[in-house]
Amino acid sequence: MAPDGGEIATGYERAPGPADIEVKIGLATARRALWVAPPLILIFALWRGGEGAVGAALGVVIVAGNFVLAGFLLSKAAAVSLKLYHAAALGGFFLRLMLIVLVMLLIAQVVDVDRLAMGISAVVSYLVLLSWETVAVARGETKELEWS
């Protein structure tokens, strides 16, 4: 509270519009994984067999989950403050990349999976999904995500 009894201005208020837009973008990006996964799974099934297909599928699922997690964390941080949002965007990026690596290492220790297929498909799907969503938002192709 300000000395005059009013609210203290933080310099940031969440813009009016649909709540949790970051979550919607994360989910939209994860849905695009349904288009990215089949070619990767097919390529690795032909190249590395059944274990390659499973590894490719796991790599895509891990990346899709990462995008949903990113949206959730950014949305929650935005509701608190702009500084926390910035911290979540920058710090969260590195933490989520480490989480991807840790999850992949854990899966590789527990399940007999093709590590090469999982790793390559994770990198490829991450870059393809990120690029695809960026272009779609920039072109205004995602009208259901319109927040301005």
List keywords for this structure.
mainly alpha, 148 residues, 76% helix
Structure characterization notes:
The chain is mainly α. Helices cover 76% and strands 0% of the residues. α1 (21-48) runs antiparallel to α2, α1 (21-48) packs across α4 (115-139) and α2 runs antiparallel to α3 (82-110). It is flat, with a radius of gyration of 19 Å.
Oligomer: single chain
Mean pLDDT: 85
N- to C-terminal distance: 30 Å
Radius of gyration: 19 Å
Structural class of the secondary elements? Answer: mainly alpha
Number of helices: 4
Secondary-structure element pattern, one letter each:
HHHH
Helicity range? over 70%
Largest sheet: none
Low-confidence residue ranges: 1-10
**What percent strand?**
under 5%
Using the alpha-carbon principal axes, give the shape: flat
The total of beta strands comes to: 0
Characterize this entry briefly.
The protein has 148 residues and is mainly α. Helices cover 76% and strands 0% of the residues. Helix 1 (21-48) crosses helix 4.
How do the strands and helices of this protein lay out in sequence?
Elements: H1 21-48, H2 50-80, H3 82-110, H4 115-139
